[in-house]
Amino acid sequence: MIRHTLRAFVFSATRVVAATSVLASVAGAQGAIANQGFGYPVGGGSVRTNGTGGAFAEFDALTPTNPAALGGVARPVVTAQAEPELRTLSINGVSEKSRLQRVPLLMLIFPASHGVAVGISATTFLDRTFSTATTGSAQVNGLSIPTTDQIEVRGAINDLRAGVGWQLSSRFRVGAAGHLYTGEHRATRERTFADTLKFGSVLDSSRVTYYGTALSVGGEATLGKGFTALASYRRGNEINARVRDTIVSRATAPARTGFALRFDGIVGSVFAVGFEHIGWSQMAALGSTAATSRDAMNWHAGAEVAGPRFRGFPTLLRGGMARNELPFVLPGQTARENRLSAGIGLPVAGEDAVIDLSVQRATRSMSASSTKESAWLLGIGVQIRPR
Prior knowledge:
The protein has helices spanning 2-6, 23-30, 47-51, and strands at residues 40-41, 77-82, 85-91, 94-100, 105-111, 116-140, 143-167, 172-193, 202-224, 227-243, 246-252, 256-263, 269-278, 292-293, 296-310, 313-326, 328-329, 335-346, 348-351, 353-366, 372-384. By secondary structure, the protein is mostly beta strands.
């Protein structure tokens, strides 16, 4: 009984978590709209990119999206960031709060000669971490015994990327990268009985690991008069789910196509708009009909301008907005997310070290439902550029 109930909430050996047909039950059990299916698409953007609503993703060298952005980087870069999320889910007037801790990006960039640079990064591709407690009862020898079930899911699929960018000239850059997707979803359920003198607790667990690959290419072309066009494409290869050493299901890592237009014709300012399409439905074979995957179209717009000087160097003030579609939903439902973002870059050691800060306000909703979710995402990143 315990084992069967556990696998109704977590990733089983062959399928994604078996969601119920009632939206409120699913959202309440998982603690968030964003945690359905394989989890929340973190995005992998740097704090700088996140502060501009994701609009800088195609040309920010610290965001492992477009490998062409690596081209022309002249100094080594080491960067790491943290991004805690404070989340509130509201269902029929009842609110539930949760807090998540993430380290979504680690990156090293090594410049070479002739405008070539190599970047190695680790980012969170999909995050699915939550815990919930429910009360109920169990029939034991004809008696109804009150119970408490504590369910914890700790899981993520990570994107390990190695890319190279080449600045062909002052107007053109190109790049290519290889991606390795790896991670796991681990779930435990502990059932305790009200009468602890007669009944001990029961513990069960489930663990599924994931492995897949992808290739990406990108380019950048300066159009003149301050305008630059950027594009990137990621082709997904096979991604599989394993229990122990056995492959239990196969699918394709989602393809991604992204475009952006940048304007930097005003000294000290950068403006950008961007669009991306991600083929999340290609992962459907890993999941179940209870929590389907759908393709997403995301839009971004943002800016960065020079602000007051700090230790002799200008600070960088950022702002942006985004409209995103979440990939994993119940059949017939649509989940959307709107974001407003702001950020600042502080040159704490001139060009040798920078601290980036960002704050994002996200609101999420499900179609044909009163379920709402809001979240604050706080970002802090450190860049070190040794000479």
